Amino acid sequence: MSKFLFSIPVVAACGFASAAMAQDNTVYLLQDNRAAESQGNVLTIDQSGASNALLAGDELGTAPAIQVGDDNSAEITAEGENVSVLFAQGAPNNPAFGNSATIGLDGTNLVASLEQLGEGNQGSVFVTGLNNSGTLLQDGIGNEGTLSVDGVSNTGTLIQTGNRNVMNLAVDGTNTNVTYEIVGSDFQPVNSGPVVFSNAGTVSITQTGPTR
User: Which residues form the signal peptide (predicted)?
Assistant: First the structure.
């Protein structure tokens, strides 16, 4: 059983990819849950404040956004112009369970990407400003990640592989590229997590430890 909740008019078939367009906005989505007894997956989308908004699996809109597994949920709000959400919880051969996602965009020429594999992960991506992109990737159990990107022409990437990691990353400035990667388990942020404000800078941070 799959559940579809949309804030814009869309036509969707459970278990199959479907595309719909309204006011130059596009949703291309696959939700698949084949368990005999399940809670289903829930997706809420609001593109009402956007022009030329895309929800799909890639920036060209040729692959669907996906939720594969059980009891996954996502809330997506897109505002502005030329804003794209690339979204996946689970994969066709790797279902996810009990993950939740929140994605928000507000600005011009923005891309927010979120992929979560595993169980019980919580991910949030917020991208605002002009010509910015943010990517959150989580693979494991019980991870919590929040990524915020603002400013002009900035890129932020947060990757967590392992279990029970918690991290917040904020990127601001101009022409800045920041990557923060955690490999291991039970990492916690100092204070609220790193905040990077830079002009034309590149920052790459990797933390590793045992996976438990």
Answer: 1-22
Distances (CA, A) of 132 to 56, 107, 178: 18, 9, 12
Q: Is residue 7 part of a domain?
A: no
| 49-106 tens-digit pLDDT | 999 999 999 999 999 999 999 999 999 999 999 999 999 999 888 999 999 999 999 9
Alpha-carbon distances of 52 from 107, 135, 165, 193, rounded to whole Å: 12, 20, 35, 33
Pairing of strands 25-32, 18-22: antiparallel
| DSSP secondary structure code for residue 72 in this structure | -
For the chain, what is the domain count? 1
Domain span at 61: 26-33+41-208
